[in-house]
């Protein structure tokens, strides 16, 4: 997962999370979790007349404790606020929440949480993403939540969309509960350019790749120590929009393919064999040869955001919803006080494509006995604006105030993750956010359409050996070409030969077979 908490006080994105192909893996393997009816039996037992259930219909009679595995560090205020949360949970769903915090590095395939799930360690829910969830389902460690939607997720269904649930549905079964509804279309389709540098060199606008290159050369002439961008091998989509007449989408998770969004079937195209691959390679080679790309582009392990906000780069990868205005610009201004950002999206006539709908989701271990309470908790969090404000910002007039319909924070400590729970159906913005960002964020998803690949992710088992070998070739041979470090003419034939030796043809055929089967269900 891309570390989505970098946006903890921001609107929506992830990387993380997102990043990747969405999940409805039609070929996924079912979990061995017990039937939902057995785990939720106690929740169906009504309380006597005169109890809290009269004020809160559906409140279960039996009291239960549930445990969340969260990420990062617990703030001082959150440690206190959990008691307030549990007063609310006791009253509304007769439940008590415990939160265990683990490092961000614990997240993902092969990491600490993965090992905890495999060994059956005691917790009831944690964050997930479509790609990792697919692996967890195939390992049979994810709970089948399908039968819990109707009885326990009414408010989630009302305030999210069917696509939110589809994103985490595998083989017709729901294996994660979606959270949040942020503007996520066209994520990483744009670039955030230093507007202050544009003003300095007299560039009023940038709408083509040639204009971007001209801007870079003008800045380089004035600032020889600056480079164009720290993003290259993992940053393809914006340049494809500017270099191709086709309506293709690409993302780092399915990095070997382009999705043809204009074709009825959403055909997959081999990226490395496409004219678009060569065009991007040639563009970055030209920048590399003219010292616009740093020579350590492939070896510098610093985070992209940290590199860009150092003030040494001209542009970086954009984010959906205009999030770099709040996620990146404040840190950049610490080093360059007069810095401003200008969002560039090439080929604006092409539609914005959505590859995901939910900000994130939570999965329940297959062995948990409390899946019904997890569903109730998530439903409560997304019930309405009042509950969003409570879980994210705390107690009104103690932790925050509402001023001109914006949140003015009194408590600066983080509580529940804002980016995870933000919902466009009851948008709440902080007083520190500029009005231009809010305007962009509110209208960002207008006209957006779902990708033809939305809901698909590969079941790797038939080609897992080939995938490991191909990834090694990609890192060693393909990335240097995309970054301009090695020219296309010099490096491509060798790279393609090694891909074929690694099993490219078998891999491509298997992906095409699974994808065609998936698309057949959408007709």
Automatic annotation (TrEMBL):
PROSITE patterns: PROKAR_LIPOPROTEIN. InterPro entries: Bact_solute-bd_prot1 (IPR050490), DUF3502 (IPR022627), SBP (IPR006059). Residues 1-24 form the signal peptide. Keywords: Signal. Residues 453-520 form the DUF3502 domain. Residues 25-59 are annotated as: Disordered. The keyword rRNA-binding does not apply. Residues 28-55 have a biased composition (Low complexity). It holds the Pfam family DUF3502. The keyword Signal applies. This is Extracellular solute-binding protein. The lineage of its organism: Bacteria, Bacillati, Bacillota, Bacilli, Bacillales.
């Amino acid at each position: 997962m891309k570390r989505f908490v970098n946006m903890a006080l921001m609107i929506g994105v992830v990387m993380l999370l997102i990043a990747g192909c969405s999940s409805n893996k039609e070929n996924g393997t079912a979990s061995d979790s017990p039937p939902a009816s057995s785990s939720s039996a106690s929740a169906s037992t009504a309380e006597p007349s005169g109890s809290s259930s009269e004020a809160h219909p559906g409140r279960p009679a039996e009291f239960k404790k549930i445990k969340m595995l969260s990420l990062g560090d617990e703030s001082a205020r959150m440690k206190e606020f959990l008691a307030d949360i549990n007063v609310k949970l006791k009253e509304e769903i007769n439940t008590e929440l415990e939160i265990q915090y683990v490092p961000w590095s614990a997240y993902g395939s092969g990491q600490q949480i993965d090992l905890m799930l495999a060994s059956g360690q005691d917790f009831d829910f944690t964050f997930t993403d479509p790609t990792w969830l697919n692996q967890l389902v195939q390992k049979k460690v994810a709970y089948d939540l399908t039968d819990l939607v109707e009885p326990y997720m009414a408010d989630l269904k009302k305030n999210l969309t069917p696509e939110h649930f589809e994103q985490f549905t595998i083989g017709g079964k729901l294996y994660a509960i979606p959270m949040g509804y942020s503007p996520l279309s066209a994520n990483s389709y744009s670039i955030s350019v230093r507007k202050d540098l544009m003003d300095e060199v007299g560039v009023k606008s940038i709408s083509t790749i040639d204009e971007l290159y001209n801007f870079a050369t003008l800045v380089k002439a004035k600032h020889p120590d600056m480079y164009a961008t720290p993003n290259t091998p993992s940053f393809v989509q914006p340049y494809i929009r500017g270099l191709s007449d086709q309506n293709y989408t690409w993302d780092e998770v399915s990095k070997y393919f382009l999705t043809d969004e204009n074709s009825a079937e959403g055909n997959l195209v081999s990226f490395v064999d496409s004219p678009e691959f060569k065009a991007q390679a040639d563009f970055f080679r030209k920048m590399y040869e003219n010292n616009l790309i740093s020579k350590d582009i492939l070896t510098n392990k610093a985070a992209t955001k940290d590199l860009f906000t150092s003030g040494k780069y001209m542009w970086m990868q954009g984010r959906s919803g205009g999030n770099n205005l709040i996620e990146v610009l404040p840190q950049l201004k610490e080093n360059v006080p007069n810095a401003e950002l200008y969002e560039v999206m090439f080929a604006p006539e092409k539609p914005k494509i959505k590859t995901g709908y939910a900000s994130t989701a939570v999965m329940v271990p297959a062995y948990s006995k409390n899946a019904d309470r997890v569903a109730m908790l998530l439903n409560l969090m997304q019930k309405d604006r009042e509950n969003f404000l409570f879980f994210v910002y705390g107690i009104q007039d103690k932790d925050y105030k509402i001023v001109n319909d914006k949140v003015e924070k009194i408590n600066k400590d983080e509580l529940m993750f804002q980016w995870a729970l933000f919902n466009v159906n009851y948008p709440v913005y902080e007083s520190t956010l500029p009005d231009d960002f809010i305007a962009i964020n509110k209208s960002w998803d207008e006209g957006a359409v779902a990708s033809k690949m939305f809901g698909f992710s590969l079941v790797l088992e038939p080609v897992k050996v080939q995938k490991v070998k191909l990834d090694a070739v990609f890192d060693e041979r393909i990335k240097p070409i995309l970054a301009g470090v090695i020219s296309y003419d010099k490096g491509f034939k060798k790279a393609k030969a090694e891909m074929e030796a690694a099993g490219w043809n078998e891999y491509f055929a298997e992906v095409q077979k699974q994808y065609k089967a998936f698309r057949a269900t959408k007709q």
